[in-house]
Amino acid sequence: MNSPVNWYPASDNLDPVGAPRLSSDADATEVAVALYDWVERHATETIAWYLREKTSKARWSRTLRFSAVTSIAIGTVAPVVAVGLNLSSNAIWGYGFIGIGAGLIGVDKVFGFSSSWTRYLATATALRRMLVSFQVQWLKSVHSPPVGPDSSTLNLQFEILESFVESVAQVVEHETTNWITEFHGNLNILEGSVAQAQSTVVTGRPG
Fold first, then answer.
1. How high is the pLDDT of residue 67?
2. Residue 19 banded pLDDT, cuts 50, 70, 90
3. Residue 8's pLDDT is what?
């Protein structure tokens, strides 16, 4: 068995990993080892993708949230300062800063930066745990004393490979389904906000 290698996706997409090409005369053991390397690479690349995407989402989330908190804080303090300096006419600017802060929070929600950050981190963590468990099971199957014919050991290894691939696929599919649901929900919110704003412009009053 080859030593584990840290693989990273070559693009921004979660691309599939090509299956190993083996000669027709390869024995079952060679096939099992090649499949292990393939499956491990697929899992490692998937984890790397989620961790990389998590980093960019976290950066946007922190920036938007920090800017929102700062803007709302300024908006809250501004009227008090304006009144204290006998500049009451400028107190209204505080509402503008509060509105900007609320808008930034809305942008974060609609584009899902914070939610994607936490979801990607949870998915990567779950996949890493599964990968370690898979590696342990594989090493046990390789180094445990034989309990029967060689075919029994190979059948166990193939079962471990198939089970792990299915588990990884289920985790990724679950995360993707959650993303689609959230995306459609945020899109509906955005469309509703746009429709309300259009109604306000046309009628001159809130919809």
1. 93
2. low
3. 40
Would you list the DSSP string of 8-23? --SSSS-PPPPPPP--
Yes or no: say if 112 and 182 are a contact pair by the CB < 8 Å rule: yes
Residue ranges of the alpha helices (H) in the chain? 28-84, 93-111, 113-143, 150-203
Report pLDDT for 62.
Answer: 92
Spatial CA neighbour of 153 closest among 139, 164, 166: 139
Contact 51, 126 (CB under 8 A): no
The answer to whether the beta carbons of residues 153 and 146 sit under 8 Å apart is yes
Tell me if the pTM is above 0.90: no
Length of the chain: 207
In the chain, domain spans: 28-203
